[in-house]
Amino acid sequence: MSRINTNIQSLIAQRVLTANNFSLSQSLERLSTGLRINRGKDDPAGLIASENLRSEKASLNAAIGNAERADQVANIAEGGLQEISSLLIDLQGLVTAAANGAGLSIQEKQANQLQIDSILQTIDRISGATSFQGKKLLNGNLDYTTNNVNAGVTDFRVNGAKLAFGGNIEVQAVVTTSAQQAGLFLSLGGPLNLNGGVNSAFTIEVTGSLGSRELSFASGTTISAIVNAINTFTAVTGVQAVASGTTGIRLESQQFGSNAFVSTRIVNPADIQGTGVGIFQLDGSNFNTADSSSAVAFSASAARNGVRDVGQDIVATINGVAATANGKTARINTDFLDVEITFDNSTAQQRGDLSVFNITGGGADFQLAPNVDIAGKVALGIADVSTRKLGNSTLGFLSDLASGKSFNVVSGDQSAAQRVVSEAIDSISAIRGRLGAFQKNTVGATIRNLNVSIENTTAAESVIRDTNFAAETAALTRNQILVQASTNILSLANSQPQAALQLLG
Length: 505
Known about the structure:
It is a single chain. This protein is of the alpha+beta class. The protein has three domains: about 10-35 and about 465-505; about 45-140 and about 380-465, CATH 1.20.1330.10; about 180-310, no CATH class. It contains nine helices and 24 strands. The strands form seven sheets. The protein has a five-stranded antiparallel sheet, with no helix packed on it. A five-stranded antiparallel sheet has the order 9-10-6-12-13. A four-stranded antiparallel sheet has the order 4-19-18-17.
């Protein structure tokens, strides 16, 4: 059948040619852009997935930048702390040199004090000057702010705390086992009665965590005289004596905890006389009372070998987490809270719960994860390292070594000065150690993990969105052939109605 008004074959050829031209244009676009999805209609579901992956990539790249920035901040703080550490070591040498009283003139001591004053001033300058983009790092600016500190707390340190926006953390402690000193009770029955032995001497060896001393006492020596003699060497032994009435002496360690101990060895009992004399352990529930069932006679072989008692560390939980302890100090270190608390003698020896303090703000927060939430944040506290803060409330502070202060090396307590300097060195070393662990284990591991995540996320996005050139070039060739064929067919379809002219003769 021949028609000239409607050419169905031409219409079919035009439709097919249009479709082939569209496919050809799509192949050309994909090959020229390198993307399989250039607009939503190319693959709606794929577009949504790839845009989500692109968003994740942006967050991951920003998190890597944050981690690298955190590493730079820690590097600058470490540089300042390293210099302070070197100054403290020099200070330790000056204190030791100045203690050589007989070998130094007053002018030399004064010269040493001038150097100490200069070192203290330099430490304060470094503390106030070390900064990153104008933000001070070592002057307490990155330390945590607290309030409502319990009166039973002598010292505390907040090393890290994740605070919700506008929130605070109430630090609660529950003491389940009290901290204890080591202690023994020497029952002497009153002034020493050596059964008339004029030339004999009651000889004991007292040993503590610092060292030991052997002491001898003649018949008739009073309790107070024995106490004074033992306490003369407390700085050497770490053991102090307290008179218990008129009949005995309580030997106790200066320090609390499992590292503290008291040991008494009877070198020569010298036929000591008296009712109930001997060495006793102290009652577990009352440190001021002897345990009558633990008596060891001075002449017994156990006394000659030595009777020993060890102190006890505090056992506590802080905010529901079991704390590690050393004497009266308890610490927890979790992802959300890292605090160290030292209790006074009374509080450390009482079981119960107490509100320690509130953390209200401060610290250095680093966003090291792509998701901005409290779980992806790392919190770090850097304490003030100025001379008025280095040390502790028990020993004193580094500023006490300045001219005119109680620990100056010209006229002050040089032994106490050395203990303060040692404590300051330990404090700086602890901060440097925390910063080093933060850089190595937190920042370093985070950067490596984020880089792997970016690789995998980029690969997933590429699978969804990028052009497969092998498949697309094959499709291009196919579409080119189809367009050429469709064009030829359309030409033939358009010429077919001309056959009707032959019917007109």
